[in-house]
Design brief:
With 333 residues, the chain is an alpha/beta fold. The chain has eleven helices and 15 strands.
Length: 333
């Protein structure tokens, strides 16, 4: 049994990860810590585990093998670094850190410790992603011209179910793009085959919060291909959407139903839209993390996606700050 400690309940997904850990046959939660002691005690009591006010105390426990880190993003370097130095395996919410420099510092600690670090990047492992990659790898759409990915919800409108700290620029490093837009961003990059040449971003403040609640990032490639990643907290019924358009065909997912449609010469000679089957999801990041711990391996591909994601986000933030496109090779660690 892999024994885990919850490190903070700041993120809205912390409860979901705790349930995953409780339901997995190979893991159990044995302790908790939170930078907000009041919140931490309440959540630890719900889990039936002891709460530690001092991070060092929980990391010093011999009966803690790994940690689930859901702290504010700006203290990831401090908390994840400390966990690595204590020899604990680490599962954490995206993004890994707010800058590439901080990511590299974290990864250096992880490398020295030889522990397994994985990020929750769930849409990488969803079945529709695998199906889309198969179409693209087979060249059925020809040369890719445009990829558009969108993910939005209404967490900042109406009753506003997002917690107030999700609008704290210092803790979050941004708003809709870095929190929710990370999924469209890594999918767009994946479908376009790698990092772009440059990133240009625009942020909107529909509800007047400190951070953006409406965002678009444009990824530009030397081939002429363009990726468009969209995210928002201020739209109530906007579907999760993927569009891929090439010189010989197009592919649609989630417009608005969760169906994968393709039209290309490889599918009935392109005479109509054809629905493709969607395979089962791959194992979740949490399940993969447990497997890596048990097998003594490390999820390098996941970490590489995470590092590229921070590079894209840092470029997008810099683009907004300077009101200009930012070359991706200028974002250094």
């Amino acid at each position: 049994m892999i024994r885990l400690a919850m490190l903070s309940f700041w993120h809205v997904h912390a409860g979901g990860y705790a349930r995953q850990a409780q339901q997995h046959p190979g893991t159990e939660i044995v302790a908790a810590w939170d930078e907000d002691p009041g919140r931490g005690r309440v959540e630890a009591e719900k889990l039936g585990v002891p709460f530690h006010e001092d991070l060092a105390d929980v990391l010093a426990r011999d009966d803690v093998d790994g940690v689930i880190v859901d702290t504010p993003t700006n203290i990831h370097p401090e908390v994840i670094g400390a966990a690595a130095r204590s020899g604990k395996h680490i599962f954490t919410e995206k993004v890994l850190a707010l800058t590439v420099r901080e990511c590299n510092e974290i990864l250096a600690e992880v490398d020295r410790a030889g522990v397994a670090l994985i990020l929750s990047l769930p849409r990488v492992y969803d079945g529709y992603t695998q199906a889309i990659r198969e179409v693209l790898d087979a060249g059925h759409l020809g040369e890719i011209a445009v990829v558009r990915t969108r993910l939005s919800h209404g967490g900042a409108v109406g009753e506003g179910w997002l917690p107030a700290h999700f609008y704290n620029a210092e803790q979050c490093g941004g708003g809709a793009l870095i929190d929710l837009g990370c999924h469209p961003m890594y999918l767009a990059q994946m479908f376009l085959g790698g990092l772009p040449e440059s990133v240009s971003a625009t942020y909107g403040h529909v509800t007047g919060r400190e951070v953006e609640d409406n965002a678009v990032a444009v990824l530009s490639y030397p081939s002429g291909a363009i990726g468009v990643a969209e995210a928002g907290f201020a739209t109530s019924h906007s579907p999760f959407t993927i569009e891929v358009h090439g010189t010989q065909g197009s592919l649609l997912y989630g417009t608005p139903d969760a169906r994968l449609l393709v039209r290309s010469p490889a599918h009935e000679d392109g005479k109509r839209w054809v629905e493709l089957p969607i395979p089962a999801d791959q194992p979740s990041a949490f399940d993969q993390w447990v497997d890596h711990i048990e097998q003594g391996t490390r999820p390098t591909a996941n970490v590489e996606i995470g590092l590229d994601l921070t590079r894209l986000m840092e470029a997008a933030n810099h683009s907004v700050a300077t009101n200009a496109p930012v070359r991706i090779d200028s974002v250094k660690g």
